[in-house]
Amino acid sequence: MDVGGDDDFGLALSVVLRAYLDAASAVFDDLPGGARGYQVLGSVATYAPPTQLALGQQLGIDRSVLTYLLDDLERAELIERRADPADRRARRIVLTRTGAATLHRLGKQLRDAEQHALRGLAADEQAVLCALLARASSAVATQGESACAVVDGVRHTIDGAPEAGAVAG
């Protein structure tokens, strides 16, 4: 699709987003849970070992769905569940060495997908655009809205699929 010299924000944004989603989707092919699994790994790496409950709330993932996802990530030796010393009923989710290496590798591949989608811009322009989009998205985001749900809604809008009841990841 050629957006030419048009200054149609929605069209330009959807073309760039589609290029990014297409390039990024291949990154998650072998990861349990796909993009949702990546978000779990990223969250576990970023915050002090979260409890399973806190992780689900943070990412907007239903408890039962999260349990199966964590089972898959644990079988792949990407995370471990450890008893919480303060509450033996709770489990803390910890990234393994393999999980950290996988997260690092996937992060690099996602940066490559980003550069692919923004290839019409110089590196400094890409950085400015990303910073501006981060500011704009922070101002627009609904309080408590999960990033998974936002991305899933966008993906369904682009694909023309119904959004009702969609769960993202």
Describe the structure.
The protein is mainly alpha-helical and 169 residues long. It has one domain (9-159): Winged helix-like DNA-binding domain superfamily/Winged helix DNA-binding domain (Arc Repressor Mutant, subunit A, Orthogonal Bundle), CATH 1.10.10. The chain has seven helices and two strands. A hairpin with a 2-residue loop joins β1 (79-84) and β2. It is elongated, with a radius of gyration of 18 Å. The longest helix is centred in the middle third of the chain and has 21 residues, at 97-117.
Annotation keywords:
2 strands, mainly alpha, single chain, elongated, 7 helices, 169 residues, Arc Repressor Mutant, subunit A
| Largest sheet geometry | 2 strands, antiparallel
Q: Briefly note the CATH topology name.
A: Arc Repressor Mutant, subunit A
CATH hierarchy class name? Mainly Alpha
CATH superfamily: Winged helix-like DNA-binding domain superfamily/Winged helix DNA-binding domain
Provide a concise account of the structure shown.
This protein is mainly α and 169 residues long. It has helices at 9-25, 34-46, 52-59, 63-75, 97-117, 123-140, 147-159; strands spanning 79-84, 87-95.
